[in-house]
Design brief:
Helix content is 70%, strand content 0%. The protein folds into 2 domains: 129 residues, no CATH class; 122 residues, no CATH class. By secondary structure, the chain is mainly alpha-helical. The chain is elongated, with a radius of gyration of 22 Å. It contains 14 helices and no strands.
Length: 263
């Protein structure tokens, strides 16, 4: 038995309820290798599942939908309604397996399928959030309910409508390209510290330090921008920055998604 036959056999055993022809799997694996993707035998089962779904296997599609639903727990920060969550899963599933270029055909088996699906769901959730984004983008930066119990902050939001989101966008733009891309890869693409360390070929501690520095720089520049644009007191500015910090994962992903990497 060849090494590829062994990879196929293990994948087929993992998903014994699905049927992907040997040649179908071999062709997909060789295509990935030829394109330089370097699929990992550890994720061969996920590739097997992906191929079954692309071929319209009902059991495979049901498994894929279940995996998407399990990922919803990672998106709690977007505060999706039940209807939005159902729409998100349905639209993501459709994009994965339908159309001239289904997204699932891009899965390379270099990493776990669940992580790959999580990135797609995050992007879809951001698209939903953009579509429903309030006219006041300050709500993205500070949170629509962030000022509850802090009436002075609510007054500042009303008085300086639009200033806080503009300040945050300016702070992002002022970051250097490396910092912006690192934040984008972490908050938008969902890469963990370990994955970023592998990507940049550095120690995990180095990534953690660089990420912390990028976050700190973003918050400090947001503080400076707010202070310059509003001339409000230091205590009020610090209150605003604390809200920005508590909501940084969503707001950074939202605005980095709008601006693109490296821009």
């Amino acid at each position: 038995m060849s090494s590829l036959d062994a990879v196929y056999a293990a994948a087929a055993e993992q998903f014994s309820g699905l049927a992907v022809p040997t040649q179908r799997f071999h062709a997909a694996w060789r295509r990935l290798c030829d394109s330089g993707e370097s699929p990992s035998p550890a994720h061969a089962g996920d590739l097997y599942l992906a191929l079954a779904c692309l071929d319209g296997d009902a059991a495979g599609l049901a498994t894929l939908e279940q995996r998407l639903r399990r990922q919803l727990g990672q998106l709690a920060r977007f505060r999706l309604s039940d209807d939005e969550a159902r729409t998100l899963v349905a639209e993501t599933l459709a994009s994965l397996v339908t159309g001239a270029h289904p997204r699932l055909s891009r899965y390379s088996a270099r990493g776990p399928l669940d992580a790959w699906l999580g990135v797609l769901l995050t992007r879809q959730a951001l698209s939903l959030r953009t579509a429903r984004a309030p006219e006041d983008l300050d709500e993205v930066v500070l949170g629509s309910q962030a000022s509850e119990g802090v009436p002075e902050v609510e007054l500042l939001k009303q008085r300086f409508r639009g200033v806080f989101s503009d300040a945050f966008k300016s702070a992002i733009a002022a970051l250097d390209v490396k910092q912006r891309n690192l934040l984008r890869q972490h908050y938008l693409d969902g890469l963990t510290l370990e994955e970023l360390a592998l990507l940049y070929r550095v120690h995990r501690a180095t990534v953690a330090r660089n990420l912390a520095e990028a976050r700190t720089t973003l918050l400090e520049r947001t503080r400076d921008e707010v202070a310059q644009r509003t001339a409000i007191g230091r205590l009020e500015v610090d209150s605003i920055v604390r809200l920005v910090q508590s909501h940084l994962d969503v707001s950074a992903a939202f605005f980095l998604n709008r601006t693109g990497a490296g821009s």
